[in-house]
Design brief:
The structure holds two protein chains of two kinds. Chain A is about 0% helix and about 45% strand. Chain A is mainly beta. In chain A, strand 4 and strand 5 form a beta hairpin. The mean pLDDT of chain A is about 95. In chain B, strands 2, 4, 5, 6, 9, 10 and 11 form a seven-stranded mixed β-sheet that branches. The N and C termini of chain B lie far apart (about 40 Å). The chains are: A mainly beta, B mainly beta. At the A-B interface, strand 8 and strand 9 of A face strand 5 and strand 10 of B.
Chain lengths: ~110, ~120
Amino acid sequence: NFMLTQPHSVSESPGKTVIISCTRSSGSVASNYVQWYQFRPGSSPTTVIYEDKRRPSGVPDRFSGSIDTSSNSASLSISGLKTEDEAEYYCQSFDTNNFLVFGGGTKLTVV
Amino acid sequence: QVQLQESGPGLVKPSQTLSLTCTVSGGSISSGYYYWSWIRQPPERGLEWVGYISGIGSTNYNPSLKSRVTMSLDPSKNQFSLKLSSVTSADTAVYYCARGGAPRPGYWGPGTLVTVSS
């Protein structure tokens, strides 16, 4: 099976743009869709990106997703950072048996 | 908008069976279109997929848990459930239920902490 590796933490200032990476250890990142989830304390988790780059209704267009086959990674970009974006973000993909694989999570600090 | 809420005992003794229910509102569990998932997060660790059950009752479980996991649907109550047998302290976690239009979470419940301890 493969692993998804994320940076443990990232930090950026309000109004700036941050990019969180999710690198697949084996197999092509393009072979299975990648999703991104936001975990904020005191709130139910939410899906911010699904199928690599699609945004659920209600998610601001400040959130965008992409994949890069040259680095075999997916990325979540958040522009115009707000303090409310401070959260833990997890990427997720599938293996060939449709088993879900999660990244280790990235804690985003907006200061 | 669909909402999900986990419920069940917060404390389970080692070797016993953990039983959780997810109550769904704002959408029917009988639609057949959706996938109903369980995901857990042990303390200070990342997410672990437990498994999912489709709207027609087919299941897919994490291989590392498969021998101990059972998921089911209860359309009469608009609920789905998780049973995890022979629990140990390693099963202590926040357990989340979720719904997706594909075999991945879309909408999530807030999560419930289950502690395994004597």
